[in-house]
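Practice set, problem 2.
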Amino acid sequence: MAASKKTPAGTAAPGSAGKPAKPDKPAKPVKSAKPAKPAKEESRTALVRRARRINRILAETYPYAHPELDYDNPFQLLVATVLSAQTTDLRVNQTTPALFAKYPTPEDLAAANPEEVEEILRPCGFFRAKTKSVMGLSKALVEEFGGEVPGRLEDLVKLPGVGRKTAFVVLGNAFGRPGITVDTHFQRLVRRWKWTDATDPDKIEAAVGALFPKSDWTMLSHHVIWHGRRICHARKPACGACPVAPLCPAYGEGETDPEKAKKLLKYEKGGFPGQRLRPPQAYLDAGGRPAPPLGAG
């Protein structure tokens, strides 16, 4: 007798009256499709539309976005921004209350004992260099600007320790003059989103600024930085919890499972304190929590 031929699973066997055979194993569930990626050759118009749509979604996600440095006036914001280099806004906010209580004006800080300032700033890291910068800029404010923080970019960048990033933080938030803040979060996200391939901060500023109206620049910076701190982390982005995932070319670099991604969320979305000791009421109303003071357990 001739050996019987094997019949592929799921097809009708000879003499079975056309009835399909049952598969040997149950079919695997179909995974949800990944968000669509923009075309490799994305046109300029498409890029502008996608970038602006991302910003609109982030604005809806973080309607209470704000500078995450505590300050009461332009001088405090300027000093706090200089101190935030290579440390967190949280650490700066925990440190500056003692600094501003002892040296509330540029005149006070310019005439301070450097060793005493260093001791206060020690928790911020690089405290000797930062002491030199904040005392130097205070002296410059007193000698060149009558103790007032200037509201022009060309004047701000002449101050010790003040670059374009710091200047735009001050201009945008203390004077209402638009500027793009290219910090590490901003650089990481705009490159992930393929808004630019540039690595130089000045070139990133120019490339991204060209995608948006100037009036959007300050809040755009807040939206991107907030998203980078809360969801689109450097090492493990929470892709499965990201509101802009369908527009992101880098989707899948991080955790895509929604439940696992939720566990990666930081600050208000994860139930943790934010960066500020004295956040705006809108942030508190949205469920955000103030950070603890320095030394609080």
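Problem 2, part (b): a different protein.
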Amino acid sequence: MPNKSKKHKKHLNKTFQFLERNIVQRLKKALLSITAVFVVGTLYYWIFEGFSFIDALFFVGITISTVGYGIHKELSVFGKFFTLALILAGLSIVLYNVSYVTALLVEGDLLRLLRQRRVERKVSRMKDHIIVVGVGKIGTEVITQLRRLNEPVVAIDSVISEEELKKKLPANASEVVFVRGDATNEDTLLRAGIKQARALITTLPSDALNVFVSLTAKNLNHDIYIISNISDLSNLTKFIYAGVDHPIATAEIAGLKMVEAIGFLRKKENIVDVLNILDRTFQVEILDITNTKLSGKKISELRLKEKYNVYIVAIIRGDEFILGPSKDEVLTKESKIVLFGEESGLAKFRDDFLNGK
């Protein structure tokens, strides 16, 4: 296990090791070259020109910086030529290295490295989190709902930035760890903590990309639960072969819901949702009991479970919402009831009670 952990950590850092090495090496070279100029200059003035060590160090400093306090009285002719060379060498080295450090800050390489380190630290502390790949319209909504349930989330996207993601999310959903990168790449998934994640949701617009992400994720973590958006149902077998546990055809579901809504409108029903469980269709609907046989009755009198296998799960009365009402609750004509039950039972219930008095 320790070897596995070391291997994982090494793999996790691989993505930005080159950038880190390059920055560190160049910063080291910058410091060494500036130090070398100071050492050579100080030793020359101290040993050959007879300056005190402090005077020699000070003279090198003002020479390189071109502050110009004047030439030392005891400076030899050779010393003057050496000073001229020191000015040229010092200026070249200092200006080059200062411009490099400035470029690092302006181009954002250093900030990017620090940000990657910060993300790595956050992810290393996470366990059983959910990875969301792609933060388009579907991905953003998925993240919002997951954060509403206080689920820890790591988002991956190769196009948008962390700042853009935070703008798209509501304030209460902004605590999301963001990894910039291509999720089909193993390194990106490892940076997102794929090994310790419990689920991955991929919402990319291309079926090919979603399949590839799923294959890569399963290869890195066999136990991870994968939910994937599927655009073309003819690709369903590919998603299953890739190890997707729950493919969701978002377009088909949206189309079905729209057609159902038209059907319910025709029947003058207020359907909230339709569920299919074990090949049985259940509905959640809201009923206004004005001008029905329900007004003035106790819930217990209706014998909903025995006769219809239907339940009143809530009562809406003005701004009041009563969840799980008592059997002794009396239904008033100002009330609306939220019903849950099998489609056939609800149809029979409507026939018995909703045709007026």
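Answer key, part (b): The two ends are 73 Å apart (CA to CA). DSSP finds 14 helices and eleven strands in the chain.
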